[in-house]
Amino acid sequence: MKKLLVATAAMFSISAFAQAYPSKPITIVVPFAAGGPTDRVARDLAESLRKQLGDVSIIIDNAAGAGSSIGSSKVAKAAPDGYTLLLNHIAMGTMPGLLRNMPFKVESDFEYLGMINDVPMTLIGKPDLPAKTYKELTTWIGQNVGKINLGNAGIGSASHLCGLLFQNAIKVDMTTVPYKGTAPAMTDLIGGQIDLMCDQTTNTSQQIEGKKVNAYAVTTAKPLTTAALKSLPTLQSQGLSNFEVTIWHGLYAPKGTPADIQAKLNTALKAALKDADFIKKQEALGAVVVTDKRVEPAEHKKFVAAEIAKWTPIIKAAGVYAD
């Protein structure tokens, strides 16, 4: 009887704790530098989540480095009480292939709370490239095999991964030129020092609209509708079957976070994704807010598992590692 009373009291304590949640500020760890695309998504989401969680304070903690594993590891080791969360992007699907020594397990050391958005990518080229359409680009690539430089924002970056997938899809190897960020890579592309780059719309839309680069295609399954990009074909429509790359973002909690708190966070996330102000801010970034079943934790986890299965063999075949 005494044991039963103790167990009942413990269950009541956990339930009461979950009902009171949140009773203090929540920290969202962003495993990238402040000011970047993922940081902007996190800050926009924090504002909308705050309104859904009783006006609680939400702090953004930028813990950048090691292909996002530093910040992710910080959350994996945090107390599972719902007060330390992780907002990460496609790195959750690529770290298992990129990192030799993973400090945590993506699929088992986190509670999945739901997906946030998809950020499309674009294939672009230097302004004086003679090819002006994707069809002309394929001809030009065929005529210049072994001479083409493909820039990216660094080993393991979104642009690097997209470039790897593109080379794999067209069966042509290019000279990969990694930079320390998108800005220097874009500067050299505009200046003609590199030939091609594949990067997210948050970084390319302005350059495309200003006609500072040649734009050839988008990496989504369907054409985009934004003014600067709606004329671009998809790579799938150009013959690259199943070619789809988006820089998606998701929200996570440490493994063992109480189910009631997970449910409360998922409900708040779903409401935040319907917030007109948040949607407007994401559209300005070139991002598409998720409205499909991936907002559900189980579906989000299933999606990440598929991303790991997709990217790991491509990364390993390229011999790429981010120690």
UniProtKB/TrEMBL annotation:
The family this protein is said to belong to: Belongs to the UPF0065 (bug) family.
Protein name: Tripartite tricarboxylate transporter substrate-binding protein
Organism superkingdom: Bacteria
Signal sequence range: 1-18
Pfam families the UniProt entry points to: TctC
Lineage: Bacteria, Pseudomonadati, Pseudomonadota, Betaproteobacteria, Burkholderiales
Gene3D superfamilies for the chain: Bordetella uptake gene, domain 1 (3.40.190.150), Periplasmic binding protein-like II (3.40.190.10)
Annotated source species: Rhodoferax mekongensis
Record keywords, A-Z: Signal
InterPro entries on file: BUG (IPR005064), Bug_dom1 (IPR042100)
